[in-house]
User: What shape does this take?
Amino acid sequence: MSENAITEVRVAAGKHAPRARSFADHPLVQLTLVRFLEFIREPEAIFWVFAFPILLAAGLGIAFRNRPAEVLKIAVVSPGLAQSLQREKLLEVQQLDESAAQEALRNGKVALLALPGAGGAVEYRYDDTNPEGRAARLLADRAIQTAAGRTDPVATTDQFMREPGSRYIDFLIPGLLGMNLMGSAMWSIGFAIVDARRKKLLKRLVASPMPRPYYLISFLLSRILMLVVEVGVLVGFGALFFHVPVRGSLLVLAILCVLSSLSFCALGLLLASRVKTIEAASGLMNVVMMPMWIASGVFFSSQKFPGLMQPFIKALPLTAVIDALRANMLQGANLSQMMPQVGIILFWLVLCFALALKLFRWR
Amino acid sequence: MLGGNSQSALRVSQLRKSYKDVLAVDGLNLEVHSGECFGLLGPNGAGKTTTVEICEGLTDPDSGDVEVLGMRWSSDATQLRQRLGIQLQDTQLSEKLTVHETVRLFRSFFAQGADAAEVIARVQLEEKRDSRVGDLSGGQKQRLALACALVGDPDFLFLDEPTTGLDPQARRQLWELIEEFKKSGRTILLTTHYMDEAERLCNRVAIVDHGKEIALGSPRELIASTCAEHVVEFTAGSASHALDVSALRRIAGVREVRTENDAVLLQVSELHTAVPALLAELTRQNVSLTEFRTHSATLEDVFVTLTGRRLRDE
Assistant: This one.
């Protein structure tokens, strides 16, 4: 056997013939799996993505809950007035001496003080800038006038509207959902890529035969998988504990969430396309996200900003996302009714993705 | 491998690459034969990494031609990537993944190659199979990097400073693994600034400095052609009674005399005649020795002879 032949035999023995590969050994599956493992092994990320929005929703939901119709406290100094006011269910009447009553009014323990005047007249003391004071004035006056024999010329009835969908928590949950879609997409893709670039892991990956688009696609796939849990947890929490409605179709909600998430992924990818340090990346992301947290109507309506700013606010991706989510969840709108918003989301998706692909550096 | 290039795994000609104000590679020519371990030896900043990364298709040269396994990056990149094993200088693999998950990920990129478990066994990391990469020692991390380079059963392995920063035991362990790969008859291109590493692993070595090749040959040839076989290093005399260095040049068998700080370095061809003669000369000059040692000439001495600098001075 010649020298060459021996070498060839060795080489042949060292080679492994290509064999049928399982689904799990596909590079895209492996890359996506790795994304997923890296995410669940980062406890902080789990907190920010899953626990934080729920804590925020719970906290704000409790703070801004709609209380049962409130009983207003008022003070009187004469037993006669107390008796005629007793019939008004919405008032809680305390009989005090004049100085104590004056004191209670001054420090807000009662909303109104009723004093007997000369000749059966009544004097109301209250703060007219305080809605509670004004309400107490109307209620007390009605009770006293009725007790004195007044009859109302017009018959009225009351019907109470206390249904879910118009409360603060109903406004808040879609806002938080939009904010969460933005944050988790941008942080997860932006941080992971900048970190891999900093560690020269990106360079190592492109030195291997990994098909480059797979790397980016794996981020999108893992994001969509995560989305199911993320959206499910927040919407489920709102529905279960606060009866926040989902009036539109769940399919439309799912399409909106996927589109929004992809759009924010593209924005994250664009921001991370060249940055080499985590500090620079997080600064850049905060600069981009901060205006949207404030202006896009997460916690309060974006209508509160001046009309001049409205076209710009409407063009922000988060505004479009949140408006569309609210239209779906609260008004039950279908896709055709939210075309302007979907158009804006798609516009950002295409623009950011095209720019990111042009600017992206693997090292 | 392909056609007329059966003997040459890598051909580099007239390679040039400059960054902003630095000329990193300055007209370099290289030829690596199939089945050999070829070393690029030089100090930090000599252009080794730039050269290797151009050969790996990661950096575009300003000018020059590169042919790897008979193929070119411009036309055959996808095919080439499948056949190269690459270990880069200071890559940090993801710390949250385990050894097995990491190797399996890299395995998924290659059409051929052994199972992840087999490659892990080859680099002796079986016990660390399920450990997180973040918990590995420096030597274990380097072996994992080697596993990721070997996982596609490459024809050509690129190693960029594989043992830099490792302790002596970890270095020796890595050398053994590289020697194992060498035995399978495949090609290695290795960069290092450790002369002992190059001497032990490489069939041939190119010494590069300032982006240029300044010497080429087997470690033995290089040592034999540029300096005598042995180096004698000593300090003698004092400020008041200095040694007359010029007299040492007349001793039979002394090829070259250099002084480095207080020390004197002699290159000698025959130690057994030169040392008694040197001691006799010192006695004649009436100076006493304060230090004395000899060693066989190394690639470090070759580098010093060629450039007047030490490999790790800068």
In short: Residues 72-147 of chain A form a domain with the D-Maltodextrin-Binding Protein; domain 2 fold (CATH 3.40.190.10). The longest helix of chain A spans residues 168-198. The interface with chain B takes residues 7, 10-11, 14-18, 25-27, 29-31, 33-34, 37-38, 41-42, 196, 199-201, 203-204, 206-210, 363 of chain A (CB under 8 Å). Residues 1-18 of chain A have pLDDT under 50 and may be disordered.
